[in-house]
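The authors assume throughout that readers already know how a fold can be written as discrete tokens. For illustration, here is how one protein appears when written out as sequence plus structure tokens:
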Amino acid sequence: MTIHGVQIIVRITGSISATASSLIIYLILRSDFGLSSIYHRIMFGMSCADIISSIAMALASLPMPNDFPCEDDDLFAYNGKGNIQTCEAQGFFISFGLYMMYSYYAMLSFYYVCDIAFQMNEETIRKRVEPYIHSIPIILALIGSLPPVFLNLYNPDLLWCKLEPIDCTAKDEISGNGYQYVRGARQTFIAFYAGGIVIFVIIYITIVASFSLIVRNARITDNQLLNQQEANRENV
């Protein structure tokens, strides 16, 4: 499949994802509870994050610079209509949305732990836990996506602008001489890439640990019910 074909698929899937998340927001707002429940507010934040990243992905190569200096810019900026600033904006919104969305997944799991495993009531969760449920995804998203903007790490790639330094051969338009075009430091990229992996590993561990606690609590409750039923039979 050609790059153009893959970009068409990316535009379609990104548009579908953004539409689906918009529908979720619409159903939440139209429901009887609206945004009054913690679960709805978490899903609202998660859907907003998905819309941000999905729309940015659906733009595919359009935000890429149309005059990228590399000699193989037809590969990096296929059908690009933007400039380096629009490219950075796309890279930022993709990273920000993904970090925020997956962090909300972890926070949703933690919410279920508070509700089911710790048996906290809705009011207690709202006062003591919910501020962290919303602030942690936003903070992690900003930490993971904002610094690369100032470090020139968002650059064109095959499908969209992403966290990737550029080191390529360019040609001076006046003299015609070739030179090495570098944008973004490789060492800094590796550091941010490793940091992103650490964040996603923490998110994964949080989700697994949360569901483990929920399953453990369910088993304990089930055993207590069985013991109570046996005790009732003995009393009869």
